[in-house]
Amino acid sequence: MLVVFLSVVAYGQKDVTKFLGIPVDGSKQAMIQKLKAKGYAYNATYDCLTGEFNGKKVTISIQTNNNKVWRIIVSDVNGIDETNIKIRFNELCRQFDRNTKYSRAALDGYFIPDDENIQHEILINKKRYQASFFQRIGTENDDPSNRLVWFMINELYGDYRIAMFYENGYNEANGEDL
What we know:
Blueprint: H1 2-12, E1 18-19, E2 22-23, H2 28-37, E3 41-43, E4 48-53, E5 56-65, E6 68-76, H3 82-98, E7 102-104, H4 118-123, E8 130-135, E9 147-156, E10 159-168
Antiparallel strand pairs: 1-2, 3-4, 4-5, 5-6, 6-10, 7-8, 8-9, 9-10
């Protein structure tokens, strides 16, 4: 009987995206407390946490759906110029490619060529620079698309920043409230 019970419980649990080893799940307050325990400071005025992630000063925002965390957004605090954002974006692509915990979500090339004018591409051609990966923490039968981690370049007044998104697709809004 115990074996059957444990099998049912294990089958019902889903492997979800993790951020800093913390499941992107549960309540926002619980997530804030877990991130504070990792050394991040909570800023009640802006409803975000601040600290360092992957060598950069960042803000961390938590998004919920039906009172469950579904997305963590990690945004660079300091903007940089076009040359340096290309280097940063390409280095992040390399870091994710080398990390065995991730697989690419798409096969198309992510790297930005040195001679590409991203300011022109973003402002005139409305190009979006982003790269997507799946976390490999699930079982063979688990759908990795529910553990999406992606990042993109944001431009603000000529400064560029990276925004990273750690998403738990199981908690994402899927029209159930319509």
